[in-house]
DNA sequence: ACAATATATATGATTTTTCATGTATATTAC
DNA sequence: GTAATATACATGAAAAATCATATATATTGT
């Protein structure tokens, strides 16, 4: 029972929880032929269609140059498309296609079922506390990344 | 204020929290010339010296073949060493060297200071709840991975 | 004891990811 | 209006990570 540093170190505890449950779900994703990075891009575009590439990168937690390449692939599969902004011709807004939606929608259902199975391991009180605390922690990301006041989409 | 799927999806909330705070600390690590994967290996060996490679992989959340390569590098830097087990000659136990300890110890202090700064954003009650819930969630990893009854070290 | 199977780690090819830099457009300062 | 700077995204070389498989040793069943 010797107490290890790791076991009470918040960053490790968060990484462990995130890793454990994400890998569980990623197995389901891969079975459906979707790589985890593609899922992360598609689900963010579902929530916020037409997001600019940079905003998408911040929300999906990837570097912009990586998102460029992921989008290249997704465009090749006709799951998303690029549109150059007319307001600012440097910017590219990314749109999920009907095909992309058709792929991602059933996965959202699976994700919700899986999430429920994870939460089922906690008491209802713990469930509420966890979500509430994670929301508070998320505000720090918004501040650090200036995600809050970021221009997200191409409003024509 | 439209509620997005992502913002209330546990796996994303966990990934976001983990990513945000880990990246904060990784900046400090890189400033000290230590890559995040090397830190993860070293800190786990600090907690449990002589761990077998497979056990180390499970605790550090990496695939065994990746740990082989990380250990190769760390051996090259004389931060760890490999020892073949006499009980089971397939197994390799990894030991942190004095040089490795000297490198990692000050980083632990930095990690604790950083962790405190993260927790400072929460009320004491939330802090307690968060750690307690994350411990409960960690049990699932132990079960899934059979980390609990795994033979960890080379007991000579 | 022997064959068949399983486990621990390593290896090398392939794929991903990162890092530094390039190109185009926009913004700011003068 | 022009030069200087900043921003958005893309590109390509380099580094890292993954995947399938190899090798060595252990374990199991007969």
Please tell me about this protein's structure.
Chain A has 156 residues and is mostly helical. Chain A has one domain (8-144): Arc Repressor Mutant, subunit A (Orthogonal Bundle), CATH 1.10.10. The first copy, chain A, is built from six helices and three strands; from the N terminus they run H-H-E-H-H-E-E-H-H. A three-stranded antiparallel β-sheet of chain A has the order 1-3-2. In chain A, a hairpin with a 7-residue loop joins strand 2 (80-84) and strand 3. Chain A is globular. The N and C termini of chain A lie far apart (61 Å). The model of chain A has no long low-confidence stretch (mean pLDDT 94). At the A-B interface, helix 1, helix 2, helix 5 and helix 6 of A face helix 1, helix 2, helix 5 and helix 6 of B. The structure holds a DNA duplex (30 and 30 nucleotides).
Question: Key terms for this structure?
Answer:
globular; about 160 residues; homodimer; mainly alpha; three-stranded antiparallel sheet; DNA-binding; Arc Repressor Mutant, subunit A
């Amino acid at each position: 029972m010797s107490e290890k540093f790791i076991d009470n170190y918040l960053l490790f505890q968060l990484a462990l929880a995130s890793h454990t449950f994400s890998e569980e779900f990623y197995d389901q994703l891969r079975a459906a032929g979707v790589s985890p990075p593609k899922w992360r891009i598609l689900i963010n575009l579902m929530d916020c269609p037409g997001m600019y590439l940079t905003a998408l990168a911040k929300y999906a937690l990837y570097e912009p140059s990586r998102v460029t390449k992921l989008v290249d692939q997704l465009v090749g599969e006709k799951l998303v498309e690029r549109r150059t902004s007319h307001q600012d011709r440097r910017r590219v807004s990314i749109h999920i296609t009907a095909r992309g939606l058709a792929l991602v929608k059933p996965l959202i259902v699976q994700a919700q079922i899986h999430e429920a199975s994870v939460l089922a391991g906690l008491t209802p009180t713990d469930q509420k506390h966890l979500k509430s605390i994670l929301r508070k922690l998320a505000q720090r990301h918004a501040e650090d990344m200036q995600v809050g006041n970021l221009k997200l989409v191409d409003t024509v």
